[in-house]
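Weekly sync, protein design subgroup
Attendees: M.S., D.O., the rotation student, P.L. (late)

Item 1: inverse folding check
M.S. brought a backbone from last month's batch and wanted to see whether the design step gives back something sensible before we order anything. D.O. pointed out we never logged the input encoding, so this time it goes straight into the notes. Structure tokens as presented (152 positions):
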């Protein structure tokens, strides 16, 4: 049986909040714990900085920031497997958030890529893509709601 695997997941959301507020919700641990990693988060949002996202049911996922341009772009590599820092090709995907002003709010675009290059069987790649698609959709909706309601 042939398994078709998407290499890239793309989602976008309009956030009725200023771009600096969206950036803050996107990149600070106290907000990330609410919209993405309820088990906790540690992040150094600078190029080369380490990050860790925790979920009680899945473990701790490690990554490394590749690029961080305030109010514009946040890009990092995130390990496929919990409790493992990615050290080589095929161990992580690339997650990128791009922000742009739109009217009185912000357009937030997410892309997760590199799924086909993961060093796991095709069915595991397909499962990751399916789960990530659902997870990112709900996470972006939650992020948008927090940023729209937040005043700090």
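Designed sequence read out in the meeting:
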């Amino acid at each position: 049986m042939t398994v078709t695997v998407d290499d890239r997941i793309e989602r976008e959301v309009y956030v009725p909040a200023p771009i600096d507020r969206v950036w803050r919700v996107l990149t600070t641990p106290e907000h990330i714990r609410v919209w993405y990693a309820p088990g906790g988060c540690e992040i150094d949002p600078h190029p080369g900085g380490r990050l860790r996202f925790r979920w009680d049911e899945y473990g701790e996922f490690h990554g490394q920031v590749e690029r961080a341009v305030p109010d514009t772009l946040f890009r990092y590599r995130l390990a496929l497997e919990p409790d493992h820092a990615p050290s080589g090709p095929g161990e992580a995907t690339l997650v990128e958030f791009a922000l742009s002003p739109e009217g009185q709010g912000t357009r937030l675009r997410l892309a997760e890529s590199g799924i086909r290059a993961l060093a796991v069987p095709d069915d595991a790649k397909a499962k990751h893509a399916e789960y990530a698609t659902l997870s990112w959709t709900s996470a972006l909706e939650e992020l948008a709601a927090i940023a729209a309601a937040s005043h700090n």
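Discussion: The longest helix spans residues 122-149. The helical segments are 19-27, 29-35, 122-149.
Action: P.L. to compare against the previous round before Friday.
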